[in-house]
Write a structure and sequence with these properties.
Helices cover 36% and strands 18% of the residues. With 166 residues, it is of the alpha/beta class. It has a single domain (8-157), classed as Rossmann fold (3-Layer(aba) Sandwich), CATH 3.40.50.2300. Strands 1-3-2-4-5-6 form a six-stranded mixed β-sheet, sandwiched between helices. Strand 5, helix 4 (119-128) and strand 6 form a beta-alpha-beta unit. The radius of gyration is 15 Å and the shape is globular.
């Protein structure tokens, strides 16, 4: 992870597993939350290639391969999207509705990963089509355990499409 905001952030691989890396798109505007998430992904050995976008507009540009993401090599289809709700320009809820409305994107699992524990946010996220809603724990050790469990579920247990559906 190089900390740059140019989309492709690098990969984290679990040693000796031989498992196919999964592309994760992390939609997160807050640099501190981003760095904590990256640190938790590393510490929990979640197998992936991570691409960061900073808001809902950039997420949609990435997914629709527009602008700086027009080259498919720069915007590989994600196996899962980790989505913050409260972002500038276009928030996570609006982006989630757009994703679910587009047939070429609607199959991509979206996990809301946020600091909000408001019941309204939970309910609205599921109504908009979220596959999971995860409240980020305050303590880093707890966050690592949450990320480890999320990784085990989404990348070891669940069968995800290869990303060639679009």
């Amino acid at each position: 992870m190089n900390g740059e905001s140019n989309g492709q952030e690098g990969s984290i691989k679990e040693p000796g597993t031989g498992k196919r890396p999964i592309v994760i798109v992390l939609a997160e505007d807050d640099d501190d939350d981003y760095l904590l998430t990256v640190k938790a992904l590393r510490k929990s050995y979640v197998l992936n290639h991570l691409h960061r976008v900073r808001d809902g507009e950039e997420l949609m540009e990435y997914l629709l391969r527009q602008g700086v993401y027009a080259d498919p090599a720069r915007s590989p289809r994600p196996g899962v999207i980790l989505l913050d709700l409260n972002m500038p320009r276009k928030d996570g809820r609006e982006a989630l509705l757009e994703i679910r409305a587009k047939p070429e994107l609607s199959h991509i699992p979206v996990v809301v990963l946020t600091t909000s524990k408001a019941e309204e946010d939970v309910l609205r996220s599921y109504r908009c089509g979220a596959n999971s809603y995860i409240k980020k724990p305050v303590e880093f050790a707890e966050f690592v355990e949450v990320v480890r469990a999320m990784g085990r579920y989404w990348f070891e247990i669940v069968e995800l499409p290869e990303g060639r559906l679009s």
